[in-house]
Amino acid sequence: GEGWDPGAVHGYPGELSAMLIPAQALQAKIGELARAVAADHTLESPPLLICVLKGAVIFVTDFARAMPIPSELEFMAVTSYGSATSSSGVVRILKDLDRDITGRRVVIVEDIIDSGLTLSWLVKNLATRGPAAIDVVALLRKPEAVKVDVDVRYVGFDIPTEFVVGYGLDYAERYRDLPFVGLLGEHMYR
Ligand code: 5GP
Ligand code: MG
Ligand code: MG
Fold this sequence. Notes:
One of its GO terms (molecular function) is hypoxanthine phosphoribosyltransferase activity. This protein has helices at 23-39, 57-66, 117-127; strands at 16-21, 48-53, 72-80, 91-95, 105-113, 133-141, 154-158, 164-165, 181-184. By secondary structure, the chain is of the alpha/beta class. The strands form two sheets. It has a six-stranded mixed β-sheet. Strands 1-9-8 form a three-stranded antiparallel β-sheet, covered by helices on one side. The protein starts with 15 loop residues before the first strand and ends in a 6-residue tail after the last strand.
């Protein structure tokens, strides 16, 4: 109702303006995504999940555990120059993969696709390393992403063009620990 504060119970009173995707809805969708990705792989060629740090780390742990087939896990960290709330597409690798992906079927695991510029760069970068396949699973997608020429095979939720936090997504490194996705109150960043 009117007075309900979704952040309060997690120690962020007065900071969120709304709950967007409750924890239960996230988990149900992640189960669907995990089964869909698993159906496209075989035990002989298990997917190598590439979690894009830091935002996707909460998602990938639930996702991997929901998959009915084995997977392997790698991490990559990239940064896209820009403001705190939007990206420029100029990307730099902060932490590269620890191993070769030649011949592997990789699945890039992303938290959110906004402009799609970061993902577009990442797909091109990984493609130069000779994987057998590159697919993308993104938990969230904003409308702008459709303008970018990246095929995102698996998408959890299409959301409006608003700044969201929680479930791995931060604002100035805060809110990643929330078990749901919510809207950050405008007074927190304007
Ligand atoms: P893109 O390159 O697609 O514009 O954005 C990529 C990155 O920007 C995402 O992986 C995420 O880290 C950040 N980002 C984009 N939209 C949001 C948002 O609504 N909330 C948060 N917390 N981060 C976002
Ligand atoms: Mg990301
Ligand atoms: Mg961030």
